[in-house]
Amino acid sequence: MNNSLIASIPDLHFSHPAVKTALTRRPRRNRRTAALRGLVQETHLHPSQLIAPVFILEGDNRRQEIKSMPGISRYSVDLLIEEATALYELGIRAIDLFCYTPNEKKDAQASEAIRPGNLLQTALRRLRQELPDMCLMVDVALDPFTDHGHDGIVNEQGEIDNDLTLPVLAQMSLLAAEAGADIVAPSDMMDGRVAYIRQILDQGGHQHVGILSYTAKYASAFYGPFRDALHSAPKFGDKKTYQMNPANSREALLECQLDEQEGADLILVKPALPYLDVIVKIKEQTALPVGAYHVSGEYAMVMAAAQNGWLDADRVFEESLLSIKRAGADFILTYAARRVAEYQRKR
Ligand code: PBG
């Protein structure tokens, strides 16, 4: 608009009393310069608050890209050390290990999960040696190891049997602790597993090993790419008898209460962005640290759009992770950890 046009508009703007009052307050003043914006920034994202999930596989010098998760690969233990070192140097001080199990090693009992000297323990021992200050976490659940793809043992009635599963989860946790894990992270959603694992760890002399409980893990469609990565999609049925109904949030408070009573050290909500309200609620209820898992599907959607030139992945990830922190997450598991830390370093 040119000046003569503006001049022709009646001066409602400053004569209207409501507008006059509003303009004594100008929130934009605090956004005027980068320095001012920095002063009033309420939430920060630091690499020390990120946990990088990593997929591992057997063999040497092997790296396999995961098609549905651009930028993410499965690594053999030697290459895992390189990846973990790069993460550490970027300030990411925690990784969470997930095992890829070849089909011939899977069975109904998840025997490979509790075989002494398996891939998971080998990886932990090497990492502990090479990166003594890195926080080492392991995912505890049976789905990467069962031929049916469920997180627990299936009984004769074809049900995922809660109580038959607990000893296997606890044994898996104990072996991980012996191999140097700092934290075991049960993601299976069986009832009572935190107490059971705590007891077995303590009996084994691993009082210092913590439990990050997947407290509110939803039966979510966002896990698709992860199941590609581990070839772990369930062969029958779904996970709705153990993972939570996406429609519920009060139920998450019950899970949180129980995990706290059972001795969890850290609480996790998963997925992250579609469940920010659950993070808020749980944070209000517990004094334990609360984390969120920004899952494979949340990562893949952004990468797919970015590959089409529709989104700027770095900026979308940074904004997403900040939102998860703003909702109350103290730490975040995310496949974008390395990318975001590199992006922040560049600026
Ligand atoms: C296994 C497990 C899953 C994820 C983490 N641990 C998959 C599932 O429950 O089917 C999903 C992680 C992701 O999608 O990034 N219990």
Characterise this structure.
The chain is of the alpha/beta class. It has a single domain, classed as Aldolase class I (TIM Barrel), CATH 3.20.20.70. The chain has helices at residues 3-8, 12-15, 17-22, 34-39, 77-89, 119-130, 162-178, 193-203, 224-230, 250-262, 276-285, 296-307, 313-326, 337-346; strands spanning 50-56, 63-65, 73-75, 94-99, 135-140, 153-154, 160-161, 183-186, 210-217, 266-270, 290-294, 331-334. It has an 8-stranded parallel barrel with strand order 1-4-5-8-9-10-11-12, surrounded by 8 helices. Strands 6-7 form a two-stranded antiparallel sheet. Helix 5 crosses helix 6 (119-130), helix 7 packs parallel to helix 8 and helix 10 (250-262) crosses helix 11. The longest helix has 17 residues, at 162-178. The protein is globular, with a radius of gyration of 23 Å. The two termini are 37 Å apart. 42% of the residues are buried. It binds ligand PBG. Ligand PBG is lined by residues 139, 141, 143, 151, 187-188, 223, 226-227, 239, 295-296.
